[in-house]
Design a protein that fits this description.
The structure holds two protein chains of two kinds. By secondary structure, chain A is mostly helical. Helix content of chain A is 84%, strand content 0%. Chain B has helices at residues 40-47, 72-77, 94-104, 110-123, 139-151, 169-184, 196-202, 220-225, 230-239, and strands at residues 2-11, 14-24, 29-33, 55-60, 63-64, 79-82, 157-161, 188-192, 205-210, 213-218. The chains are: A mainly alpha, B alpha/beta. Chain A binds chain B through residues 116, 118-119, 121-129, 132, 136-137, 140-141, 144, and chain B through 48, 50, 73-74, 76-77, 79-81, 83, 85, 87-91, 100-101, 104-106, 146, 149-150, 153. The structure holds adenosine-5'-triphosphate and magnesium ion.
Chain lengths: 218, 240
């Protein structure tokens, strides 16, 4: 087999662009997803079942259906409906955010509920309102515990963003497919893509491990 | 000061408090004793509205705290609570534990809250631990901080739910000492405890609970030396 490094070199600028977009898409997805997820997670744990219901429904839908289906719904349905025309990058960010929000909501819920009940009771017994107790006592402790699973979610999201190639968002995998189509090659484009993803996930894991260790020693 | 009228509390089908009537005078120290599961904690938690009550009324200085119109948070500020497991905030230092509620709830300035906090820590003998995190303290120290934290809100009443039960025997004394001091200063206190020595020495009145009822109440000396009810006798014979 004749592995054509020269073709990879030729495509390197595109892969670089794609890598930046992949990072951008997953970063946007995790950040927006975290904000939405906090809101949805809090919504799910309120006592009032009627208020909690739509949040539970949201989580069930986005965790129970394939991301690819969600991407199509957003790209061909939601985004054109809202903006009149579609846009792959915008649709990508929306789909990744909505999807990760569901998983992050569960991470928040678990994090909040893992805090000993006595903490809430102590805060309330001091006269703090529910919101004050959440904000100053429960959430700061819960956030610490949420960092490892949030990191995991980030890695999953980064890998799953490759699905956006099918709606032609020019991220890593899009350029892999473009290269494969142009040269009728399999190994060069897809191994390159795999290699880039691997570098990204390994670096991210490294950063997250360090962060975790730092937090543990505080 | 506190008036409990026909208080009932159920968890599902389980009626834990059946008909509690109780009146606590200002500066009085009431000790609550009774077997496990008799509803002692539930009674305290109802007084602090940590549990919703099923029926009856609780009045604090004439205000019905069970009335939905009254602000629960406002009510709770007047009632301090000390828990068996301390429940200190582990992500905050000792002084921050003391400052949090006064600054956020009473809107006291940080400086005033700190000064007050240091003063309270001095009182419980832990001034030098102000900047330590709770995880570095012994059980007895944690509980003293928890008492100081409750006092920082300047409550009118302090509730203690088995404050020494989770402690090693050798540090029980230092916590009881702080509580004694507090009683001497005239704090109104309701104390659930198994420390009969404390009940005898500090208590103005001892209440014996069993099966969701107040079975008997009296001055400590009378209750311990000549209990009237069979159930009280049976219980005391086991713990004294
Ligand atoms: N949140 C709850 N949900 C359901 N049942 C409860 C709850 N809290 C307490 N109970 C029940 O209420 C009863 C009284 O409990 P409580 O904690 O008031 O007893 P206690 O007198 O404080 O006992 P102990 O000496 O063991 O602390 C028990 O049977 C307990 O199982
Ligand atoms: Mg109890």
């Amino acid at each position: 087999m004749n592995f054509r490094f020269d073709l990879i070199a030729e495509y390197a600028p595109f892969f670089l662009q794609g890598t930046l977009l992949t990072i951008g898409l997953s970063l946007a997805g995790i950040l927006i997803g975290t904000v939405l997820g906090l809101f949805i997670g809090l919504g799910k744990i309120v006592q009032n079942k009627l208020i909690a219901f739509p949040f539970t429904l949201y989580i069930t839908f986005f965790r129970g259906t394939p991301l690819l289906v969600q991407i199509f719904l957003v790209h061909f349905g939601l985004v054109p409906f809202l903006f009149g025309e579609t846009n792959a990058i915008l649709a990508g960010i929306v789909a990744l955010s909505l999807n990760s929000a569901a998983y992050i909501a569960e991470i928040f819920r678990a994090g909040i509920q893992s805090i000993d009940r006595g903490q809430m009771e102590a805060a309330r017994s001091l006269g703090m309102s529910n919101v004050q107790a959440m904000r100053h006592v429960i959430l700061p402790q819960a956030f610490k515990r949420m960092i490892p699973p949030l990191g995991n979610e980030f890695i999953v999201l980064l890998k799953d963003s490759s699905l956006l190639a099918v709606i032609t968002a020019p991220e890593i995998m899009y350029w892999g497919r473009a290269m494969a189509g142009q040269y009728y090659k399999v190994w060069e484009p897809y191994l390159t893509a795999a290699f880039i993803y691997l570098i990204l996930t390994i670096s991210l894991t490294f950063v997250l491990n360090r962060l975790e260790r730092r937090l543990k020693t505080d | 000061m506190i008036k409990v009228e026909n208080l009932k509390k159920s968890f599902g089908d389980n009626e834990v408090l059946k008909d509690i009537n109780l009146s606590i005078e200002p500066q009085e120290v009431v000790v609550v004793i009774g077997p496990s599961g008799s509803g002692k904690s539930t009674l305290l938690r109802c007084i602090n509205l940590l549990e919703s009550i099923t029926d009856g009324h609780i009045l604090i200085e004439g205000t019905d705290i069970t009335d939905k119109k009254n602000d629960i948070n406002k009510m709770r500020q007047e009632v301090g609570m000390v828990f068996q497991h301390f429940n200190l905030f582990p992500h905050k230092t000792v002084i921050q534990n003391l400052m949090l509620a006064p600054t956020k709830v009473r809107k006291v300035s940080a400086e005033a809250a700190r000064n007050k906090g240091i003063e309270l820590l001095r009182k419980v003998g832990l001034e030098e631990k102000a900047d330590a995190y709770p995880s570095s303290l012994s059980g007895g120290q944690k509980q003293r901080v928890a008492i100081a934290r409750a006092l920082a809100m300047e409550p009118k009443i302090m509730l203690f739910d088995e404050p020494t039960s989770a402690l090693d025997p050798e540090v029980v004394g230092e916590v009881l000492e702080v509580m004694k001091q507090l009683a001497k200063e005239g704090m109104t206190m309701v104390v659930v405890t198994h420390e009969m020595g404390f009940a005898r020495e500090v208590g103005d009145r001892v209440i014996f609970m069993d099966g969701g009822y107040i079975v008997e109440e009296n001055e400590p000396k009378q209750l311990f030396e000549s209990p009237q009810q069979e159930r009280t006798k049976a219980f005391l014979s086991k713990v004294l």
